[in-house]
């Protein structure tokens, strides 16, 4: 498309003054025919307004490139009302700026025709009023989806998993707003069928959706299936894999090279544990390798401590010790688990209660 000076020389010079090259300018005119009739003053005013709401100068060119229509919109008629409405949903001014940077097209939608009906729809699903803003601002692209043809399909799919109690679907949405952007037929349903195929029950699927809904959004063939195949190669049986996935669903979407393989190698080669032991403690794969597993294993080795697997679970987890395992020794390891997040590794003397011996129940 060739843009002549008669179409609007002033807007062309505006773009050039802002550092856009001719190729980028041509692409923006292709995206938005309305630019041809936009006066430089309006474009400048809208550009300046984006700066006043906290959008960094370096990000504005990218925003305009994605949605050049922003420069053609009426500032007080369209942009300001949307920004003001979004501001009432956020807790920090930066959240609105961040949402616009993620999805600039949100400014081109109507508050009355799109945003308000969307908020009402989510509230009806059980999303608390105070959480509505988080859902929209985390995934502003939601405003572009049709409630009837898109969002309702997702709701029906979640209901088919057994989410029938009031508010349950709203909790899934709060946990992972991006789930509403995926296709039921191309992604969510095939993934749920794959999870059933490897042995997960309906109750298991509900746990996955409630706690780790992002698992449903991954491609079963490209991501989940290779992870299952890897676990089988390491010697896990079908029932054990189902138990691992049910206990810690992200095991299916973790990187084999950077996450699963290093942890299993650490389990077998360093901890000297049978690989099957981890089936009863899937959260092992949640633990950070460097900051948790290696650090605490080093402490145990320094103290020449050998724990049975149930005590290992306590030592390496973030869950409280059961009384049966709360020996002074285990308590020291547990206190390290709690404190190392804030202070780094503590000496045994710091961790020990006053007057308490290192070993036994004294």
TrEMBL record:
<keyword id="KW-0806">Transcription termination</keyword>
<dbReference type="GO" id="GO:0006353">
    <property type="term" value="P:DNA-templated transcription termination"/>
</dbReference>
<protein>
    <recommendedName>
        <fullName>Transcription termination factor MTERF6, chloroplastic/mitochondrial</fullName>
    </recommendedName>
</protein>
<comment type="similarity">
    <text>Belongs to the mTERF family.</text>
</comment>
<dbReference type="InterPro" id="IPR038538">
    <property type="entry name" value="MTERF_sf"/>
</dbReference>
<dbReference type="Pfam" id="PF02536">
    <property type="entry name" value="mTERF"/>
</dbReference>
<keyword id="KW-0809">Transit peptide</keyword>
<keyword id="KW-0804">Transcription</keyword>
<dbReference type="GO" id="GO:0003676">
    <property type="term" value="F:nucleic acid binding"/>
</dbReference>
<dbReference type="InterPro" id="IPR003690">
    <property type="entry name" value="MTERF"/>
</dbReference>
<keyword id="KW-0805">Transcription regulation</keyword>
């Amino acid at each position: 498309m060739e843009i002549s000076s008669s179409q609007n020389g002033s807007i062309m010079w505006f773009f050039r003054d802002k550092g856009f090259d001719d190729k980028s300018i041509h692409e923006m005119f292709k995206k938005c025919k309305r630019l041809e009739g936009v006066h430089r003053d309006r474009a400048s005013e809208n550009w300046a307004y984006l700066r006043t709401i906290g959008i960094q100068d370096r990000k504005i060119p990218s925003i305009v490139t994605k949605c050049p229509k922003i420069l053609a919109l009426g500032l007080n008629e369209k942009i300001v009302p949307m920004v003001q409405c979004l501001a009432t949903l956020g807790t920090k001014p930066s959240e609105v700026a961040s949402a616009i940077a993620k999805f600039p097209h949100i400014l081109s939608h109507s508050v009355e025709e799109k945003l308000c009906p969307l908020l009402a729809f989510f509230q009806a699903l059980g999303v608390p009023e105070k959480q509505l803003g988080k859902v929209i601002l985390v995934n502003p692209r939601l405003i572009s989806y049709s409630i009837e043809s898109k969002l309702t399909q997702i709701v029906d799919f979640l209901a088919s998993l057994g989410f029938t109690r009031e508010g349950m679907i709203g909790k899934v949405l709060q946990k992972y707003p991006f789930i509403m952007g995926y296709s039921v037929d191309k992604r969510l349903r095939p993934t749920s069928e794959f999870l059933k195929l490897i042995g997960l029950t309906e109750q298991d699927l509900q746990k996955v959706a409630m706690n780790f809904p992002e698992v449903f959004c991954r491609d079963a063939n490209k991501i989940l299936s290779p992870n299952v195949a890897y676990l089988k190669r390491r010697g896990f049986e079908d029932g054990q894999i189902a138990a691992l996935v049910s206990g810690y669903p992200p095991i299916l979407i973790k990187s084999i090279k950077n996450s699963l393989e290093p942890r299993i190698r650490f389990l077998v080669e360093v901890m000297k544990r049978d690989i099957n032991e981890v089936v009863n403690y899937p959260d092992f794969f949640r633990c950070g390798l460097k900051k948790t597993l290696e650090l605490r294993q080093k402490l145990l080795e320094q103290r020449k401590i050998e724990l049975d697997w149930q005590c290992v679970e306590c030592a390496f987890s973030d869950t409280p010790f059961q009384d049966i395992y709360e020996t002074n020794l285990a308590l020291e390891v547990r206190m390290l688990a709690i404190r190392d997040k804030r202070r780094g590794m503590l000496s045994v003397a710091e961790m020990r209660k006053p007057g308490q011996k290192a070993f036994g129940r004294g």
